[in-house]
Amino acid sequence: ALISLRQLLDHAAEHDYGVPAFNVNNLEQMRAIMQAAEATDSPVIVQASAGARKYARPQFLKYLMAAALEQYPDIPVCIHQDHGTEPDICQRSIQLGMSSVMMDGSLMADGKTPASYEYNVDVTRKTVAFAHACGVSVEGEIGCLGSLETGEAGEEDGIGAVGILTMDQMLTTPEEAARFVSDTHVDALAIAIGTSHGAYKFSRKPTGDVLRIDRIKEIHARIPNTHLVMHGSSSVPQEWLKIINEYGGEIPETYGVPLEEIVEGIKHGVRKVNIDTDLRLASTGAVRKFLAENPSEFDPRKFLKASMEAMADICTTRYEAFGAAGMG
Ligand code: G3H
Ligand code: 13P
Ligand code: ZN
Question: How far is the CA of 196 from the centre of ligand 2 (A)?
Fold first, then answer.
């Protein structure tokens, strides 16, 4: 059944767990997420980015999500729009039937230029006004994602500031978080603590100076009733990098957010954990391996099944690690 982000995260807060929010672009991702959720009895957040809308087209996404709800009527599913860059985009997603939207006003409408506090509050407030009138939840963001190692925002073609960010822009302060929530009444708040989108987050296993879990604790202490969201939360599994590179890929050494750090965040108010890259890596690794081992196969269902199973394994591990398993 369709559930709003607010309903789901209120339950998560009450029962001290976090919900992975997986990006969806195609049938295989959607099925992997739902299969893993059914197997572990977990509630689901699926999210569609601007890139997903461009790749799959909005109507295909709409019915893909509707299909998940119909195929699995007993699983609570929140259908969320990831990184809306303008209120108009959020409005269109509500019309498509989504139960939650992210208005990312930390960046201007180009999705690249860091925005002022006033701009962020203005676009987020507008979105909250019409979304709440429709029973739809809103996630906002304060602070810009960026690497504390390099000052870079991460992925070139996705959502993220271009150029070098200052430490001030990259780290959300408890004061601005509290002010933003009281100015906008968002249902969930994405904060910047040193993570970034994509596979290249950290050049070595992250330590406390570049992955600021301590900052989550400070923000949670200040606004204990606000559901916190961690973006850029892929763990970048070393075992999948190895498989990709063993079968012809060329991905340089890189590290993600360790599961145990996310679990620590969940103990301190993180309720939604955004994951896209890990499914991409597992899918690519599984397809490379399958095709290398089965050179005469040409039925895409065969390698897409391998991809689906690899992605479902990632989802299962996350549902279990974050305490969402058994909460569906
Ligand atoms: O926001 C980042 C997500 O990983 C989505 O990326 O726009 O390439 O689909 P995308
Ligand atoms: P990753 O790139 O770490 O998977 O983050 C995804 C994300 O934050 C989507 O909004
Ligand atoms: Zn994100």
Answer: 7
